[in-house]
User: What shape does this take?
Amino acid sequence: MLDPKMEKALNAQINAEHYSAFLYLAMAAQFAELGLPGGQQWMTAQYKEELVHAQVLFDYVIERGGRVELEAIAKPPTTWPSGTKMFEDAYAHEQKVTGLIHDLASLALELKDHATYQFLQWFISEQVEEESTASDILQKFKLAEKDAAGLYQLDKELGTRVFVSPTVYAW
Ligand code: FEO
Assistant: This one.
């Protein structure tokens, strides 16, 4: 059985992952508006990945005999002036999520909930990758936005991303 404090914190993380999904879906819409279909595709894949993160947490709470309580998802920003600004925000957002995951792991240790601590290790590794990817693409945008040909090439590269679930989940 989950400690009520852990249950509440995991529910908050489910909400945070759904917010992440919304944020990236909003960025997908903004890339479409900017005429950058590759960026749109990349952000759509990221949106799906965040839904998987939420689902993994959802399933874990239930598996532990806890109660899932979904909350309203906050409205994300809707307008960014450029891909660079979007990836600046994406990188900052992932750093924030890393902090949330680390806080969850600390709480699990404090409560001597070793099962949850072990469960969270996957998220800890996943966040290393999330931050690194956002930071790499941000650097590329900083270079590419100086010339149209570079931006076109980068957009093409982003468009090659195909969503692959980071877990056993099929979607
Ligand atoms: Fe669910 Fe991008 O971290």
